[in-house]
Specification:
Helices cover 16% and strands 31% of the residues. The chain has 868 residues and is of the alpha+beta class.
């Protein structure tokens, strides 16, 4: 079909992370798709069968501009195709999970293609109308904690260079008194030129600056004790508020870093990954905070430093179910030993352990022993003072924790809330003249750790959230922090539970440093300096509804809060009040806290102060939190989701509500374009171990633009009811290939799955599973997940590299054609003679994956390649 000026729209739903907009499991539909290894097109000219000259990445430049802790980063890469024939190149980037992509441009064959942002529904409609969905997905081998993955693949003409420019924005959060800016350098090749430039320009003096050695991204945050990167050049600006850091590793340095990265990662990742480039810094601050205004917007920072900490009552709720067996429980014991030592002398603590049953640690100062008691709502043990004697007894008990039973989440939280409600009373219970005991003013905190899902007791997560939020109310309302230990914890549920109860969820990765991760988290929340904090702005000075979150349950030592908003048009001075409670110098009780800063408002515009974009970024983040917490279920124009979408579209941020769309015009009127509902001849998927790999694409007209894009996204914690989104995987969206070759007999008809020979004669049962749009078998796997397994038209079926392997990725309990004397292996479907006589239901129990994508079956060895 000839078409002039055809627009091919490709959308990728890029989901911002970490920690935003997680659906509950009951609302999810996971789709797992095997990597679709496709055929290459074979040229009619056999002279083109010579090996291609490898495509080469030649340059990578990263530039970050940081102002007011707001980082805007551009990553530009150049890739050159030295061959006469087109080849596929892929741009690959790991982003911080809190970042929003704000722009993407490709320059292909001298022409610029700029991405734009659309609402998810509109983008999906464009996608459905214009392209057929590719069927590829795979786990990413090169990955860092708390990071998102973005990949786009494009066909590069012979003897040309493609340029990719990805831009993203992120707000740096202060943790333990430092802002950390992280750039992932995983180029996938040793490059003639790599340059990283980070320019920081703050409103206050930069008091600390640390650029540690490159990291893998799988350690806890760097500290001042880490060695300084000796290869960076630090250039101070004209004043103490500005600095530029430059990093240009030459080839020997790249080889050194790649070797270290591989050794740290135990050889499980690409040898050309260099690691994470980290810049950490801090600025001068005061207890009164800082207010900045620019072009009608304001930002209000507060990070108290010299206030005495509030005394607290912290309840540790620890999962000791059977799934914590082994290293997990050992790491928990180790972490708790350190955490208990960090309690302040006027703190109180309680420890709840839960599995099928719930028990509370009882500590009495006068007793030499401590022990766990069964939880009883009417008679709970009193919290223990954090004395050295009590801490030692608690450590001894914790050191002997053992695991058993199931996971009774609600009962464990109910016990914690019971302890919080009971509180801590002061006064001598035996004193005759003190019949009435006074309640101590302690900051209540619940730290809840689990590695699984609720599988006994109350299992409905929505009901658990509702019950906990209802009970956690009044003057004793506690901040609830959830720690999701490992990959099996219900992070969506834990995130929502924490948001509804003034806290947040943190993922603790199941690794050798899990105990350090737990302690690092505790340090961030262990010293509340202010509680019940309110930022109050005169209504006449700010625009209604424009101020971001301005109430905070607690502000901890080493952290910072930021409030942003729009100024009223006639405002000449901003005079807010900040009120709350702080600790007393004598460590007893708390006192009123109040400050009244003010700042003059000018109408001059300072280009380096990105207040408008900072306002948009923080407002979207907080609206998404509000939506996910379930505080506002409205779907009209006033709902938080709709507000977030409108702002994201205006400022071109890729969020969970928007999609990145690339539009590429067809440049030739002789192109034959396959319809969207018909399968294309998609490219072979790029390797996910390296961003730039040789992918030959042969055609009878090698100098024509074949016109395809592939886009991938990997965003942890997110699952959606769409094949465009994958949890911990890569969504691979492939445009229909534009076939530029024509013969003298006319245009060839499009190829569909129904008229392609997949050599399935004798395998009639496959007809019910054949996907006509992808040329693949669709299997409904465990938990209702959908698995797409590719078929081949080649006469010679695909085989595992290194020979037929074990059925490691099969769900079968017995192989097809198995007998007592024969082992089994995973082979491509048509190689197993016994598979001819099975049913579709049998295949669901015995399928496996060959070469990361093809339809395999777990087959008895004596049935492989058997001739009847």
């Amino acid at each position: 079909m000839k078409s002039r000026g055809l627009m091919i729209a490709l959308c990728i739903c890029v989901i911002a992370a970490s920690t935003y907009s997680v659906e509950l499991h009951s609302q999810e539909e996971d789709i797992v798709v095997a990597s679709g290894l496709q055929r290459e097109r074979r040229s009619l000219d056999t002279s083109t069968d010579r090996p291609n000259e490898p495509i080469k990445m030649t340059e990578m430049r990263v530039r970050s501009e940081i102002a007011l802790r707001y980082a805007r980063t551009s990553v530009i890469t150049h890739v050159h195709n030295p061959d006469m024939r087109p080849q596929e190149a892929s741009f690959h980037m790991l982003l911080p999970d809190s970042a929003f992509i704000s722009g993407f441009t490709m320059i292909i064959d001298g022409k610029s293609y700029k991405a734009f942002v659309k609402g998810k529904q509109e983008a999906k409609q464009m996608y459905t109308q214009a392209v057929s969905q590719g069927s590829g997905a795979a786990h990413i081998a090169t990955k860092a904690r708390d990071s998102n993955h973005f990949t786009v693949s494009v066909n590069v003409e012979g003897n040309t260079t493609a340029v990719f420019d990805l831009r993203y924005e992120d707000f740096l959060v202060s943790r333990n008194g430092l802002y950390s800016h992280v750039i992932n350098l995983h180029p996938g090749a040793l490059l003639p030129r790599i340059e990283v430039v980070v320019h920081i320009k703050e409103s206050q003096k930069i008091t600390k600056l640390h650029v540690p050695e490159m990291r893998t991204g799988n350690e806890i945050d760097a500290t001042q004790n880490n060695a300084q990167n000796s290869k960076v050049v630090i250039q101070n600006g004209t004043n103490e508020r500005e600095v530029t850091i430059t990093f240009t590793p030459d080839l020997p340095e790249q080889r050194r870093l790649a070797k270290i990265y591989t050794e740290k990662s135990k050889g499980n990742v690409a040898s050309t990954a260099l690691g994470q480039f980290v810049v950490e810094y801090d600025v001068q601050r005061s207890n009164d905070g800082e207010i900045l205004v620019n072009d009608g917007y304001f930002v209000h920072f507060l990070a108290p430093t010299s206030l005495p900490p509030l005394s607290k009552h912290v309840v540790f709720v620890l999962d000791t179910s059977a799934s914590m067996y082994g290293r997990k429980i050992e790491q928990l014991r180790k972490a708790m030993d350190t955490i208990l030592s960090d309690l302040h002398r006027n703190d109180y603590f309680s420890i709840v352990k839960f599995n099928t049953d719930v028990k509370i640690l009882e500590l009495k100062e006068a007793d030499s022993e401590a022990h766990f008691l069964d939880f009883n709502t009417n008679n709970s043990p009193a919290p223990a003072l954090a004395s050295l004697h009590n801490i030692d007894k608690a450590k001894y008990i914790i050191s002997s924790l053992y695991v058993e039973g199931e996971t009774n989440i609600y009962r464990g939280l109910e016990a914690a809330l019971s302890l919080i409600k009971k509180g801590v009373n002061q006064g001598n219970e035996n004193a005759v003249d003190e019949p009435v005991k006074k309640r101590k003013h302690l900051e209540p905190i619940i730290i809840f750790l689990t590695d699984g899902e609720a599988n006994t007791g109350e299992r409905n997560t929505k009901k658990i959230i509702s019950l906990v939020s209802e009970k956690n109310s009044g003057d004793t309302r506690a901040t609830l922090y959830s720690l999701a230990f490992g990959n099996n914890a219900d992070r969506g549920f834990l995130r929502k539970l924490s948001l509804r109860n003034d806290g947040f969820m943190r993922h603790i990765y199941e690794a050798a440093d899990a105990a350090l991760q737990l302690h690092d988290f505790y340090e961030q929340v262990s010293s509340p300096l202010l509680s019940d904090v309110k930022f109050l702005y005169p209504k006449s000075q700010v625009k209604e509804g424009s101020v971001s979150r301005h109430r905070f349950r607690t502000i901890n030592a080493g952290s910072e809060v930021a409030v942003v908003g729009k100024l009223a048009d006639d405002t000449t001075e901003l005079t807010p009040r900040i009120v709350g409670f702080s600790g007393n110098e004598d460590d007893q009780g708390r006192k009123r806290y109040k400050i009244t800063p003010k700042v003059a408002v000018t109408r001059t515009k300072d280009e380096y102060l990105p207040l408008e974009r900072l306002w948009a970024y923080l407002t979207i983040k907080q609206l998404l939190d509000k939506r996910d917490a379930g505080e506002d279920h409205s779907t009209d124009k006033k709902g938080p989701g709709k507000k977030a979408l409108d702002i994201a579209l205006k400022y071109a941020f890729v969020t969970p509500l928007t999609s990145l769309v690339v539009v590429k015009p067809n440049e030739t009127n002789t192109a034959d374009v396959q319809p969207a509902d018909k399968p294309s001849l998609p490219s072979r998927p790029s390797s996910l171990l390296t961003p730039f790999t040789q992918k030959p694409w042969r055609s009878a007209s090698p100098r024509r633009n074949l016109g395809f894009f592939k886009l991938h996204s990997d965003y942890s914690f997110y699952r959606r009811k769409s094949a465009l989104h994958f949890h911990d995987s890569v969504a691979n969206i492939v445009a229909p290939a534009i076939t530029t070759s024509k013969t003298t007999t006319g245009t060839q008809a499009p190829t569909t799955a129904s008229n392609v020979n997949y050599h399935l004669d004798g395998f009639e049962w496959t007809s019910s599973m054949l996907n006509s749009s992808t040329g693949a078998l669709t299997v409904l796997g465990e938990n209702g997940t959908q698995v797409i397994l590719q078929l081949t038209t080649d006469v010679d079926p695909p085989k595992m590299q290194g020979g037929d392997g074990e059925c490691l990725n099969s769900t079968s309990t017995s192989a097809v054609g198995a007998n007592e004397n024969a082992g089994s292996v995973c082979v491509y479907l048509t190689r197993c003679y016994a598979a001819r006589s099975i049913t579709a239901d049998d295949y669901k129990k015995s399928y496996c994956i060959v070469n990361n994508g093809y339809a395999g079956v777990c087959c008895a060895k004596d049935e492989v390649d058997r001739i009847p």
